[in-house]
Fold each of these.
Amino acid sequence: MVSYNVVGVRFKKAGKIYYFDPVDLPVNKESHVIVETARGIEYGKVVIGQITVRENDVVLPLKKVIRIADGADAVLVEQNKTAAKEALDTCAKKVIEHSLKMKLVDVEYTYDRNKIIFYFTAEGRIDFRELVKDLAGIFRTRIELRQIGVRDEAKILGGIGPCGRTLCCSTWLGDFAPVSIKMAKDQNLSLNPTKISGLCGRLMCCLKYEHDNYESAKDELPEVGSRAITSVGRGKVLGLNLKERTADVRLDETGKVLPFPFDDVVKET
């Protein structure tokens, strides 16, 4: 199988990692580089040093690192961020003028200022053609309005989750994994939406983190409500505690509910 020498580059904090060919450049982890992407020339940070990956792990054709970034590039990026804040204010005023039911979330310039991207949320589809014309006339560059979901909004804006920590999506989580209500059920969590939903209003991403452990435990252990055999007798399984790795069993002989280590609980056949 064909393999490639690549580096992993991230363009935003907690953003998705993309692979590029470093060619013969001395590209190291934590350095900044200028690369060509589908949306133009971009400035990114190397978060994965040079590694060899299989063909199935990269998107072909593999784009190359143009050059290692210098101080002038860093200054330009900061200038773009300042200009983006001003563009956000200008666009917000235009949204009001056009009476559009949309909420602006973020704005960014591409590195070469070839395009300005406005991110927004809305309940439905928005006809923003006249808005784009106004913005193009003001900024004299390509304009893109991109509608995003509430999870992406939380990732951009950040915040504190129910756990008291900064949101995973805004600090380190590169991609959103599918999360289902079944995961909460498998973990015996309360199905109260306020307890299992994040700031975005969707199911918390952390429900996915331990789900594989619960799935493997379910294959090995009796289901809640089923019959089981323990070292002190037979009984009915009332609950599973994956963290403590114990099962609560009501014993037939005494009627007591006792916690038993997983190794001490066997399905009754």
Amino acid sequence: MDIEVGGIYPTDADKMGVAIAEARKGGAEGGIPIGAALFDEEGRLLGSGHNLRVQEGDASMHGETSAFRNAGRQRSYRKVTLATSLSPCWYCSGLIRQFGIGRVLVGDDQNFMGGQDWVAEHGADVHVMNVPELIDLMADFIDNNAALWNEDIGED
């Protein structure tokens, strides 16, 4: 999939497709295959990104934060949709809550359950899609990279 900032992605599946493409890109770079993207209320892509913890040696560069940074400053996030390939960890859930992102699409909450319920309790409209492709992608990554995965989620 060609990702075009400013392009229109009208359906939830289209939006998740951008997150999937970013996740695959991160995995191909030797990183953790988690991707995310932010869209305005018309479905226009504001920015996308993927987990860059390994590539940049930066523990703060989760998929959601990468997409958030790439989207640039927004006047308000209430009508913004965040598509993320994996349930957002507590760090990224805090970002969602802090900036009041109004809608969250979760591609996989089978391999990892972050703070999505907490985000929903505080007003975000959360839709869990559990895309088989993403569930398989993360399961394979976790099986083959247990130490790196545990580092990413803060486990010893």
Amino acid sequence: MRRTCVIGAGPSGLAASKVLASRNVPFDCFEAGSGIGGLWRYGNDNGMSGVYASLHANISKESMSFSSLAMPEAYPVFPHHSMVLGYLEDYAASFGLHRHIVFGTRVTSVRPLDDGGWEVVCRSRGGVAEETRRYTEVVVANGHHWDPRLPAPAVPGAEEFGGTAIHSHDYRTPDPYAGRRVLVIGMGNSACEIAAEISRTAARTFLSARDAAQVFPKMLLGRPADHLVWSPLSDLPRFLKDPALRLLLRLTRGAPARYGLPEPVRGPLAGHPSTSDELLAQLARGAVTPKPGVNSFGRDTAVFRDGSRESVDAVVYATGYRISFPFLEPSVFAAADGRTELYLRTVPPRIPGLYFMGLAQPSGAAFPLLEPQAEWIAELIEGAVALPSPTDMTRAIAREWCRHRKTYVSSYRHGIEIDFRSYRRALRRERRAGRRRARVGVPALPAVAGPAPAADAL
């Protein structure tokens, strides 16, 4: 009898569970924590949430909603993390998902079987013995914002630094940093927001970034910046869209130099946007001091690439996360250098019955892409659609990576970066092509995401 295993009950796992349940596909969902929500559950007892107390979504409620359930109208434009968790709880309750979820159970091993299917080993919290089950398919939905990534190699002298040093994953409140000289390393969303928050009570706050980055305000022309994905600007070809967005940022935010930031070399669409009104305000009033990359540490100092030196007694590494699958042997699947060899970010070409959810990072919201991705996976499980040949999928992945390198910054962080609209269109095309393949039983050419430069959006 066919039965599917879903790993994780965060947003990706919930979307997969909702779709499988609606199609009456037998499945079990394993969640290491005692509740749903993944990273959106503050203090999640699965140990994988890095949400801090004051965190609000940096995507608007309209853009963040699943297609099958809108966020409450009463929510603010950018809801607090507790509201996002409440929304996910409502989502799970609305579709009766809790009865499918085995809480407090961590998957420790997923292994392909010689005769087909998968052996899944899991351990309940506090349990001594492990339980082994067999499944015909496995949907991996364990997220990609839980395994802290530190600079590698380490900054020279980091081991000699005498102050406190944590990864942003462990940051919760600014209280421990009051009256201290704090260095935040990174320029992503977490780095920007944490630096701004700490600066309100710290003696000094430094924000160090190796490369200049665009910092977007959360609102542009009176609307959430992420709404640009639906605006006429998004339909422009890239050679027009990039300067148009530069001009829009200049008119609404001003030049980076006004905040003490260097002018980014790359265009605003070449990297994942960092959005923070708070940081811009704190830079403008001098509460946060921007610095280049760190060259080395002393016992109580940091030396930067421009030769400057600052006294520092606390460091927060907001340096992102590794994409990790601790239950899979690297010989089965791994994301080397943040790059996933997956057809449409979902299917490993030569590993039948293994699917990945949520390993696609759009510039805007990810939630609306999860249900369409889950629908495709469910159709593959049911046999309603058929995949291209492994060779064709491998070629499609290579073509996509070629486009990716021409479009985005070459960095670990951008290994799973996608354009929202291009990816959604590619999923639709693939599902149509897959139905044709299933009817005639003959592989067709794979659908690939359209040229990113023609559809990049915030």
Amino acid sequence: MLLEFGLEPKVVGADWRQCKYLLEKFGFDRGRLIAAFPKQWQRAVHEAAADLSDMDRKRVETLLARAKSALVRSGRNYDPELEWFANAVAQQAVSPFHAIIADQNSDGRDDVLVAADVDEEVPLFQSSHGWQVQRTGAALAEAMGPLLSYSREIWFVDPFFSVLELPYVETLRTCLAAVAASGNVGAKLQIHYRENDRRPPTDELERRIPRSLAGVIPAGMSISLHAWAERDAGEDMHARYLLTDRGGLSVEAGFSAVGPHQNVDLHLLTPQVCEAKRRAFADGAAYKQEGPVLIIGSDCQVTRR
């Protein structure tokens, strides 16, 4: 699972070498995320770096810019009258972090890591780059939750995805509900699938969508359907992915929610692989677009592009 950590600003800003060591361990591809806690977490890091030399302060700024993609909104309450550590500990009883990384752990808490002792072999800091979940819409949506919540672009890539088939609709329903619940209603949502002779023609698909997707797309949201065909001697469109601007996952068995009696393997993609997969669909370099793009609104009205 993707793990969210509370990272004390002063342990990042006070020493650029420690800043580099810590921030390199975070990212959607590393399985670890940094909570923006407080909301102006980056500003707090800059303030902690105020006493560094100009060169070291610039190093911290550069490292922060590189790690921005690992920073996610927290939504947790923060009392400016209290120290950061006290705020973080208070949140463990309300909306817990996977762990707190702080300058010290005088109380010997099990959910706190001292920054100087952080190592990828420490059990509380270990993260998996792959995991297995049940093939249900709820399990898939939960496992993909951070990517659904924090990404501006969300692409479901599955050659067999069908908005007319209940197992796929169930996954779509739960994933879109997760997007809406996180407040990420402005995300650009797309489904990319492979065209074949067994799929209904575009006119029939448009007629059937309102019934199939009734109540599935939350208010204020829309999703676009992109049909593709393989090029002669070109790439095979077989693998299934969740691709976003923040990172991606391979979804081995696809997005069909066939039931809890089966499992699906998920694996984090490196930024390079994720971006290469996105480019393959964004510019049609790897596949041929088949027919118009269909845009479906929350009222299930369909428009062509």
